Amino acid sequence: MNESNQPAKSAVRPWIYVLALALLLRLVSLAATPLTDHTEARYAEIARLMLQLGDWISPHITPTELFWAKPPLSTWSQALSMQIFGVSEWAARLPAVGWSTAALAALAWMLAGTLPRLQIWAVLSVLALSPLFFISAGAVMTDATLIACVMLVQASWWRILHSADAERRRFSRWLAFGMGLALLTKGPAAAVLALLPILLHAGWRHHWPVVLILLRDRWVWLICLAVAVPWYWAAELKTPGFISYFVLGEHVMRFLQPGWQGDRYGFAHAQPFGIIWPYTMLAGLPAVLLLLLRAPWLRFKQGAGTLSAQYREVGGSELACYALCITLAPLLLFTAARNIIWTYALTALPGLAILAVCILPAASLAQIRSWGLAMVLLLVYGWVFFFKAPQVGAGHSDLPLIEAYQQACGGQDCRLVYPAKPAYSAYFYTGGRLYAGMPGSPGAPAFKVVARLDKSSLPTAALACNREQCLLRDEVVAKPGQ
Description:
Blueprint: H1 2-28, H2 39-53, E1 60-62, E2 65-66, H3 73-85, H4 89-111, H5 117-128, H6 131-136, H7 143-161, H8 165-183, H9 188-205, H10 208-216, H11 218-238, H12 242-256, H13 276-283, H14 287-302, H15 306-314, H16 317-334, H17 349-358, H18 362-366, H19 368-395, H20 399-409, E3 415-417, H21 424-429, E4 446-451, E5 464-465, E6 469-473, H22 474-477
Parallel strand pairs: 3-4
Antiparallel strand pairs: 1-2, 4-6, 5-6
Helix pairs in contact: 1-5, 1-19, 2-3, 3-4, 4-5, 4-7, 5-17, 7-8, 7-9, 8-11, 9-16, 14-17, 15-16, 16-17
């Protein structure tokens, strides 16, 4: 028995190493790149302000301005991380690694008993190496939290379908718990992203009786509401008008009205119709590439029906159908949306990973060329995140300016002046001192940030520059021609 299992164990082990190295690489790269404006630095500053102000109900985007665009689950985790480890980009990004690991664990739980261990570890590795998932796994955004909550809901549905009685009721409770967390991550949008694949699958495979069982289970409703409603209730009582803006503005007008002018915290993205499809193809590499190469080969080289037979042999047609629903749901939801970004493709990636791995026979996954290519991709990611990303990130962050200011100031109380509203990274890296201004002490050096008019060259007197601005001594700025 042990001898017969040995080849399987030896085939699984490289994929375990791939996944472990991917998570380790993401963990050690957290501090390699500065917090970039606008997204990362903004969410990190919101978490820092939550910790500074001690307000764990209403997130703030400045000390006096509320942030109504997102519920606080991801912000809670980031603020808690900063409280434990100190305020830094590493602490701000650390929860994303945890949430992404939770998403992978939920996917593994879903596939246990359906796929062999080799395919499960390969699916997890393919998902972890998808560009968008890998980036989100160490970025200060809400997306890692979202994929973890959505994946828990969708994994619970799969387990519900393959269980009965007490076990089914237990899995239903997990689905409800995941739904409550999803509502605390991105509100109704997260609920739609979590439930749409389930409804598509239920309609396609005639699982409506199971859906009705869930709807009639009062504990499903009670658990979901008990997790989500207290914060919404407290937030509305504390800051009246929140629910109206959040539900109508952020979940209706944002997606239907190009260039929506009601956004209080950023700007609308007027994208072409259907942009979510190319976004998903980019976000889902290498799974998309594998599907594009393998599926036509099976169809035209081995005949009609070969593709379906491959999926039936590996995980069954039911799993292939559900994976397709997971993939298509966000694409169908956002095809007509104009105000979207590429992170909206994230919840499609688990389905893509399942479809990509199950299209391959186990013998192919066991070969060195399969996991060897994954290792090569890890090397590429290592080069990107340790060498290229820090250079690019420094151009989109005020950290170089703040570091130059601190070095030139030499521990004194120096004046620092911005010509306009500073970037969020400037607030974060000065510990929020810029909100009240930094007038400095008499006799201490003074510094000023100025816009870069010529992007091709640096001012000779600049202490540091990013893509948009440079730091100069204030007396230099005062001299004409400098």
